[in-house]
Amino acid sequence: MATLLGGGFALRYQDKLHLILGFSAGAVLGVALFDLLPESLELARKDYAPATVTLFVASGFFAFMFLNRVLLLHPEDEEHARRGQRRQGALGAASLSLHSFLDGVGIGLAFKVSTTVGSVVAAAVLAHDFSDGINTVSIVLKHRGRGVRALRWLLLDAVAPLLGVASTSLYSLSDVELGVVLSVFCGLFLYIGASDLLPESHHRHPKVLTGLTNIVGAAVVWLAIHFAST
Asked: Does the predicted TM-score (pTM) go above 0.85?
């Protein structure tokens, strides 16, 4: 429900897309820097040094960058460029949905440890799911996607955590393995936020106001994570 509410907000105020993109850019970078990176370092530290974890982060960043370049072949052809934009938006939305799935996996595994730990993790996920909904819709709309297409991805993103929780009854991941997965997604989110959403949010729009929304997006995620973990 939190994801759907965030996505519905983004769909309702498409005329303010640059501000929504600004918030989304800050939120995506906030999730990467304040949530995924610390969590991956903590989980993987038994087997991997911090420098190795950051290598996994870089791998995710550059792998996503390469996929973006492949998806945008023939940019001089308007039709090919338009199709490339839609594929790029779908790739970004898919990565967010997969991250939401992993959020669900984290909740399921945490409840296997104890009810207290599971409740804390669940609270942290719920706290930033509103931003996840905004981010999913914003990425699709930014890449020439229509409202119906954005709604489909939003529904997938909303269901993904539930599927993630359910999947933990079928398998288990070690802390180290989960840490590696989260580090790769940290790289993906850094690319989406810094190389995609952030520049687009500042394109031909008031820079000060948009810059403030960048900071607000990151601050909201930090506050959600901070209070959920205390």
From this structure: no
